[in-house]
Please model this.
Amino acid sequence: MKIKIENGAQIRKFFDTLGVNFDKAVNIAMNDTSDKMATDANKELSYGVGVNSDLFGSVVSDNNKPFKKYIGTKIEHAPYVEFGTGPQHTDKKGNPKPRERYWPPAIGSGRYGKKAGELEKWRKMKGKQFKSHDDLRHAIWRHGTRPRPFMRRSLQKNKKVFPEYLGRALAKMANAPFSKR
Model:
């Protein structure tokens, strides 16, 4: 998400006369917005994937750099959950976009053996739905996995809260009351 502030020099001059640091207020608003997006993405994960998933609670926001915020997860299979696999894959806008089928790794297969072990733990957690690891692999290859967007929903829902957070930060710095319209 990019934010463009028009007439930035005039706005900064205006707020300087009030004794308010506009850049600091923008950075505070960006921090609050990114934290809200990460929290809502984790909430979406609890609805779509479940609280027992390793994805639950993994979405974090990194607010260390001024004017650059990172919201994401380090879990490797997060894109497959967000966009789906195989025939049910979607693009970034949520439109269906079929692609090559994904053949999940077999147990003990070279460098992907660890990922197969994680897939096997998930299969056992599901109970009797898949009798063997190969049944699970075939189901994923044939049908794909449906997309369960968590980041896109959070972004769409929260990109409109930035102006409110900016207004709150500016009002606090100017010692003025904030009223939402």
